Amino acid sequence: MSRGFSGAEVLHQNSVGHCSISADSNCTAGIVRKYFQTGELPTSGTVCEVNERPFQLPGLVVA
Q1: Which residues contact 56 (CB under 8 A, 6 or more apart)?
Q2: How far apart are CA 62 and CA 27, in angstroms?
Q3: Residue 62: strand, helix, or coil
Q4: 43: pLDDT confidence band, cut at 50, 70 and 90?
Q5: 19 in a domain, yes or no?
Q6: Is residue 38 part of a domain?
Q7: Is the pLDDT assigned to residue 62 strictly greater than 70?
Q8: What residue numbers bound the domain in which 37 lies?
Q9: Tag placement on the chain: N or C end, fewer CB within 10 Å?
Q10: What does the DSSP assignment read for 35-56?
Q11: Name one Pfam family in it (predicted).
């Protein structure tokens, strides 16, 4: 979709779910904040990780 908008960039957030900014990510929040404050777009190919994954509990054993 971004190809249809000259000068656009895509920010990929590596999280579960669909189109959700509710997955807490300091990386994503910082980039979105910078965009709204300065208009600066993320570098092409930027991928942000989330702060923690859902159901990620200390000592959790996954079979």
Answers
A1: none
A2: 27
A3: coil
A4: very high
A5: yes
A6: yes
A7: no
A8: 2-49
A9: C
A10: HHHH-PPPPTT-EEE-SS-TT-
A11: Abhydrolase_4
Residue 22 lies in a domain: yes
Residue 55 lies in a domain: no
Count of residues in the chain:
63
Per-residue pLDDT, averaged over 39-63, amounts to: 83
Q: How many CA atoms lie within 13 A of 39 on its CB side?
A: 1
pLDDT at position 18, please?
67
State residue 10's pLDDT score: 93
Q: What is the pLDDT of residues 21-34, one digit of tens each?
A: 678 899 999 999 99
Q: What does 6-18 look like in DSSP terms, one character per residue?
A: TT----EEE-SSS
* Alpha carbon distance 19, 1 (integer Å): 14
